[in-house]
Amino acid sequence: MILTVTVNPAIDRNLTVDQLVFEDRAYILQSQETAGGRGINASCVIHSFGGKTTAVAIVGGETGQRLKQMLSGCGFAVDIVEVQAPTRINMNISDRHGLTIKLNEKGAAVTPEDVQRIEQAVSRRLPEARWLMLCGSLPPGVAPDFYARLITNAKQLGVKTLLDTDGEPLELGLEAAPTVVAPNQQEAERLLNKALLTRIQYLDAAERIRMMGPQMVVLSLGSRGCVGAREGQVVEAIPPRVDVVCPIGSGDALAASFTWAMLRRDDFVDALRWGVAAGTASATLPGVTFASFDATKKIYEQVQVRDNPR
After folding, report:
1. What's phi and psi for 227, nearest 5 deg?
2. What is the CATH number of the domain that holds 259?
3. Which residues pair with 17 in a beta bridge?
4. Does residue 49 contact residue 260 with C-beta atoms inside 8 Å?
């Protein structure tokens, strides 16, 4: 079982508009609300691929009850921790040409008692897990070493971990030496305090991050695929060209598919191919929508791998 943790979930309000142009109006063509948050998204992908997953998530307020209702029919186990802080609403806007804007609320503050109950929920589920995915931002009130503590607990039980976050939680999480860390390009740039513009810089960045603690790094690069690093090896997984409709959520699909594939075969390079395939296939769909296993498999067969031994 793959256990996902989403401490700062959201209701995603997804708008498709005719065009996004500075200082001009846009007309809404389609609007929908979905359950959001990186860990919840990851569980959705894993479940659709036939994997077993449980999602731990917090909900609060009226929006939290709406999120809880959305998750009631998701098909996988959800361990809900109810808090007073209202669940946030994020807004994703994309036009017909693939231009996208993502607007996220920070989330309301949770209490120390809430944090303790979240940790207890994760601890209850850990013994039945093979992988623990720690995904997304932390709301106010959660200490930045929260993920680091969970990584340490998981390691004591022999559970592998994937960390997918940003900022100080990422820095402190790296010190706990997770199995995998999965930043996107912008998160890696903030971590390294350096712009990443060229292929050589991507390769070096993945290796530098690996030297900061994790066993493996999966650096996602959007339409350029990803760079994976482990001891002695840096690998590029390069997707085919596709028509991008909405890239939001593609990184979540990549991390989820990578973890699913690692659990399935424990083959790092093959898992990178699956991750890039899921992210690429999902980017061809409108809104925050995740590609099916069959659609992902078609892209998987076209993903190229370039090995760079170190």
Report:
1. -120, 125
2. 3.40.1190.20
3. 28, 95
4. yes
Q: How far is CA 255 from the centre of its chain?
A: 5
Q: For 180, what's the count of Cα atoms within 13 Å in the CB-facing half-sphere?
A: 30
Q: How far apart (Å, rounded) are the C-alpha atoms in residues 48 and 80?
A: 20
**Sign, Cα dihedral of 274, 276, 282, 287:** positive
To 10 degrees, the CA torsion angle through 204, 205, 211, 215? -100
Average pLDDT, the chain: 94
Q: How far apart are CA 241 and CA 117, in angstroms?
A: 45
Residue 309 has pLDDT above 80, yes or no: no
Query: Looking at the predicted structure, is the pLDDT value of residue 310 above 80?
Result: no
Which residue range is the domain that position 192 belongs to?
2-309
| Burial readout 44-76 (b: 16 or more C-beta within 10 A, e: otherwise) | bbbbbbebbbbbbbbbbbebbebbbebbeeeeb
Number of domains in the chain: 1
Q: Which residues contact 30 (CB under 8 A, 6 or more apart)?
A: 15, 16, 286, 287
Kindly report whether the global pTM for this prediction surpasses the value 0.85: yes
For residue 282, pLDDT beyond 90: yes
Residue among 214, 285, 301, 211 at smallest CA distance from 253: 285
Per-residue tokens: 2? 């793959």
Contact 95, 244 (CB under 8 A): no
